[in-house]
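Follow-up to my post from last week.
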Amino acid sequence: MQSTIFENNIYSNSIYKNKNLIKNIIDHKYLLWLFVKRDFVTNYKQTILGPLWFFIQPVFTTIIFTVIFGNFAGISTNGIPKILFYLSGLVLWNFFADCLIKTSDTFNTNQHIFGKVYFPRIIVPLSIVISNCLKLSIQFLLFISIYIYYFYFTSETFQPNYVVLIIPFLIFIISMFGLGLGVLITSMTTKYRDLKFLIQFGVQLLMYSSPIIYPITSLNGDLKTVILLNPVSSIIETFKYAFFGVGEFSLFWLAYSTIFILILLFISIFIFNRMEKNFMDTI
Amino acid sequence: MSTILQVKDLSKQYRLGEIGTGTISHDLNRFFAKIRGKEDPFLMIGEDNDREKNGGDYVWALKNISFKVSKGEVLGIIGNNGAGKSTLLKLLSSITSPTTGEINYNGRIASLLEVGTGFHPELTGKENIFLNGAILGMAKHEIYEKLEEIIDFSGCTKYIDTPVKRYSSGMKVRLGFAVAAHLEPEILIIDEVLAVGDAEFQKKCIGKMQEVAQTGKTVLFVSHNMNSIRNLCSKTLVLEKGKLIFNGFVDDGIEHYLNIHDKSYKEQSKINFKDNGSIAYISSIQTDSDNKYFEFNQKDYNFLISINLKEHISDLILGIIIEDFKGNMLLVSTTDELENDIFKTINKSGEYEISCKVPGMILKPGKYYLTLSLRGMSGKPFHKIDKGLIFHIQDNITFRGLKNRYRNIPIIAPKIGFSLKN
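User reply:
Got it. Predicted complex:
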């Protein structure tokens, strides 16, 4: 009998070959865009203030941080206006935390769709990251306007510098950390849900171990190294350095974060792609 | 015709019970076997998927399924609940991967295991058409081109800019099906979606499906509705407890499937029944031939029915019903229709034998059920035997080599007289 060659093949688990991931994502870019739109549009439907909520959340947190950490606790802000100091850290941190928390629940929240239709599952966490990027850019505008206000209309002195140019890179790399870690957690929690409990307070612990409410220069010795081992730390510190010219800008630690995150991302996506084939059986 | 889809030795194993600390030992076991380069130790075990049996940690939802589908074929998949139909569809649509075996195909597979997958309640009907279409694998331009058509087909024009959460459940289904009906993959997989919507919409759906089937698309269709299977499909697969037990033409497949249920009926020429406690009962039915087979061109098919009367009943009626294997009632006849009622001559209790003659060459060759009922003029029957006897009429004649002439299409096959008049 003549054997036919088929374009597509599905094999059992052990001999599965991944299709080209990038090509797969490009093939589904329209779906990706629709998911982004869905996340973004449905977020504030039937609210009166609508997208204004994007501002309200970081503004209030900043005010609370300013009062508690700035005024009561008296933690140094390296001479940067308190509001700007906390807001800059929070905007970037919230972006990361949202990426992480939402992607870490991908399989669970989408099981009704995943159980009925196949498309590359990575589209969903990617769409979460992209819609969070949109949210970030809105909040970034808020930050920039307050920044400009302080720069021109107050006597505060701080200097932005050339490091501003790598801010897109900082945002990219921190989003990849959120994606990588989230995707890893969602893959590991399909069968055993234990990690799900860790993420709840893990994110909070991680926040306190990154320089958001304190400048990294206020630490030294081993403690500083430990804090910098958290890949988010040097990214946030560089972000602040770019805008205010104070703090620390260390190429070494930035390179460490980048490499750490890229390796994590690579491993996570590999595990995610393995998990996506069978997670419906175990979730 | 060329093969578009090929399934080889496909199996899927599932673990039973809850996932908890207990499963970790199995997982570790499997992991150690893997790093030593050995086969998964749990593949050796596992049982047939029989819901009623107890015990065992693993089952085979599918076991060694192989089949091929040619381009343009509409394949029906039938089987009881738990036979593995949905598992097969899930494997074909890549939702989960097989334990062993492989699936090879050309082109795109779109699966329609549910209508309206991914509908977001906050989005409007139109927005959901785009979202759902893209989830099902339609390209952007395809959706734009067909948007008008989809809205028309759904019959939700008025509501198209209203959030879907305001829709009635019927409207959601209609919108979902409308999107799905406009998918144009090379292979389409459909699971029971026709069982929804009102009669008018169902008709529309069947029409659309037939249209799709006629355009030369390959369709795999799972349903419990034998009528839609027969209307739409040319071939069928019959699954039973995870195994493929039949692969062939649709009518044979349906007959085969319905036969699975008939195991409880004894296929023999004489069947005895027990006294059911009422004043009259049927004690046996018997065909006059040695086995349950009649020849199609026999003059009559004779049945012998024994009844037992414990006392004299003046208005006794015996009725028979003949049904075909699809459940169509073909014939009903009772003794009181006759000019000289046989029971008029009986005036005392005792055992009586009644001969019943069904004329030959009317029922087409096939398999039939005989139902008997013994009753008075009013009230509950004394004795009713539902599908008490199965008999077959064999196709023993050929018309110029066309053996299966009567097989599928007509319901009855009487000989019609034709003569030349001039």
